[in-house]
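Quick one: Pirin family protein from Euzebyella marina, structure tokens please.
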Amino acid sequence: MKTILHKAVSRGHADHGWLNTHHTFSFANYHDPERMNFGVLRVLNDDEVSAGMGFGTHGHSNMEIISIPLEGDLEHKDSMGNTAVIKQGDIQVMSAGSGIQHSEKNKNQNQLVKFLQIWVIPNKVNVTPRYDQITLDKEDTLNNFHQIVSPNSDDDGVWIHQDAWFHLGDFDKGETAKYTLKNNNNGLYVFILEGSVKASDVSLERRDGLALWEVDKVDFTFDEKSKVLLMEVPLAN
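--- reply ---
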């Protein structure tokens, strides 16, 4: 097993006034040649957007974009005609494909919206753009790694054009869990949203990330109430 630990304080950071953001991998003005990606996991941004503010209309192509709201309400509009609001417990996906324009805005005038913005390099290019969102059942993630992203449209969660699987879990103090990779050639990126966790005996705290590869399963123990995101991704596209 090989690992790379990314402590929360080592992430790139930018404060634009209306946007306070942390970058696990190189993004915008943050560039670290040692932190470009983990396999096809290209972007993991931890965003806070001020009340009433947001990302104006802009374009993407040939990228799978997953948004996971953590707090507040995020309003989405795109060039396919979709208008939606996503909030904590929702998962949003866009296949940018041949090209899409969209905006993401804090719908509320009196509180922050906090969300993860994740980009995955697809295994197919110039596909027809697509939008989808789901709402999770809180019971599904309780002391369990529940699948929220997969390559298959008939599986749990949203689907993307990549052999990647994401799982989300909310664990009580003292619980244990195990994750078995779907493909032993893949790697696993563990991101701690809240709490204190041991993953394969590596101690992780809030917003720490751990990349693991050349491994078929990972054991977890939860030293306090914790929320964890797992991203299993191919190491090469």
